[in-house]
């Protein structure tokens, strides 16, 4: 029956019958179970049964049975179109119903529809795809706008953090201690229990290769309070710096008035180090700069500028230089270092 009626099942519980899309003429349907309409009217009107004069009881089962018969007589005509194609010599088709002009016209229309792809699922997709396309485009545009806004905000934050750790931005901290008052030398009552730390940033050089700009930089750090010099400082080397100039500044002077690495090494040795692996990588670069300056009889500042120019031209990261020390000055080994800044 499935093959004869061209039943298409796309998913469990879902199917599509081409013959169900074309209803047969009502006149043909009434020729099958011709008394069905009469008995249905009697049931609806609750008339007595003409055979025994008993009143017909309208029940759910009776209504469902009539609905089944109405469906079957339409289905018989619909399926007959395909059954005739499969079994053309069957005696059932000798019935006068199947030779009527109404049935012949209906059969031709049904065969045409069955050959076409009228699956409602495909038709629904054809209507929905343009709508879905527009919806996806709107969602993509909205998402792109939000991402661009977020990206711009992140760039501002990253830029500020970079300027902060490289000494181009300033930060001011006010730390209040209520539980343990701190006695400040020569301070008034209002000053007790409060530590004010004001840090003035180190201005960035206007010319990276200018020695005078580097020497004229203003950097200061003011502490008000009783600072215990016997406590090992807790300092974490900056991950935000990207240039050799900034690394050298952190090592020799400190960033934003903070600790200089060489001072920490001189005062505390290895006790202040909490990240030995990272420290050793950065120290390799510093040692190479000092070696190159000594070997070529130039200042360390000049060596720093040469190294930074080399790094910038090649796009190297500090991490990459620490793993490949020979890359820092490899092309300057046979050249005059004083000409590298021209």
UniProtKB/TrEMBL annotation:
<dbReference type="Pfam" id="PF16787">
    <property type="entry name" value="NDC10_II"/>
</dbReference>
<dbReference type="GO" id="GO:0000978">
    <property type="term" value="F:RNA polymerase II cis-regulatory region sequence-specific DNA binding"/>
</dbReference>
<dbReference type="InterPro" id="IPR052146">
    <property type="entry name" value="HOT1"/>
</dbReference>
<dbReference type="InterPro" id="IPR031872">
    <property type="entry name" value="NDC10_II"/>
</dbReference>
<dbReference type="GO" id="GO:0000981">
    <property type="term" value="F:DNA-binding transcription factor activity, RNA polymerase II-specific"/>
</dbReference>
<dbReference type="Pfam" id="PF12550">
    <property type="entry name" value="GCR1_C"/>
</dbReference>
<feature type="domain" description="Transcription activator GCR1-like">
    <location>
        <begin position="235"/>
        <end position="311"/>
    </location>
</feature>
<dbReference type="GO" id="GO:0060963">
    <property type="term" value="P:positive regulation of ribosomal protein gene transcription by RNA polymerase II"/>
</dbReference>
<feature type="domain" description="Ndc10">
    <location>
        <begin position="9"/>
        <end position="101"/>
    </location>
</feature>
<dbReference type="InterPro" id="IPR038279">
    <property type="entry name" value="Ndc10_dom2_sf"/>
</dbReference>
<protein>
    <recommendedName>
        <fullName>Transcription activator GCR1-like domain-containing protein</fullName>
    </recommendedName>
</protein>
<dbReference type="InterPro" id="IPR022210">
    <property type="entry name" value="TF_GCR1-like"/>
</dbReference>
């Amino acid at each position: 029956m499935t093959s004869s009626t061209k039943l298409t099942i796309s998913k469990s519980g879902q199917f599509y019958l081409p013959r169900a899309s074309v209803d047969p003429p009502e006149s043909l349907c009434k020729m099958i179970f011709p008394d069905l309409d009469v008995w249905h009217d009697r049931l609806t009107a609750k008339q007595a049964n003409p055979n025994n004069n008993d009143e017909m009881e309208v029940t759910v089962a009776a209504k469902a049975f009539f609905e089944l018969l109405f469906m079957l007589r339409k289905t018989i005509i619909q399926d007959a179109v395909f059954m005739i194609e499969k079994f053309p010599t069957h005696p059932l088709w000798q019935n006068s119903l199947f030779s009527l002009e109404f049935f012949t016209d209906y059969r031709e229309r049904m065969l045409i529809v069955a050959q076409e792809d009228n699956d409602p699922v495909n038709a629904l997709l054809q209507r929905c795809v343009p709508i879905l396309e527009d919806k996806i485009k709107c969602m993509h545009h909205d998402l792109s706008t939000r991402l661009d806004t977020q990206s711009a905000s992140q760039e501002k934050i990253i830029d500020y953090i970079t300027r902060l750790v490289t000494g181009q931005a300033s930060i001011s901290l006010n730390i209040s201690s209520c539980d343990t008052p701190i006695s400040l030398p020569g301070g008034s009552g209002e000053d007790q229990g409060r530590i004010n730390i004001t840090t003035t940033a180190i201005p960035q050089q206007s010319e990276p290769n200018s020695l005078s700009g580097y020497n004229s930089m203003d950097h200061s750090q003011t502490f008000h309070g009783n600072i215990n010099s016997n406590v090992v400082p807790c300092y974490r080397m900056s991950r935000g710096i990207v240039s050799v100039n900034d690394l050298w500044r952190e090592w020799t002077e400190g960033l934003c008035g903070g600790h200089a690495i060489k001072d920490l090494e001189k005062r505390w040795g290895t006790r202040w180090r909490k990240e030995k692996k990272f420290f050793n990588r950065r120290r390799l670069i510093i040692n190479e700069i000092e070696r190159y300056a000594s070997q070529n009889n130039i200042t360390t500042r000049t060596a720093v500028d040469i190294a930074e120019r080399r790094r910038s031209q090649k796009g190297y990261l500090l991490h990459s230089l620490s793993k490949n020390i020979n890359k820092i000055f490899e092309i300057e080994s046979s050249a005059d270092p004083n000409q590298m800044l021209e």
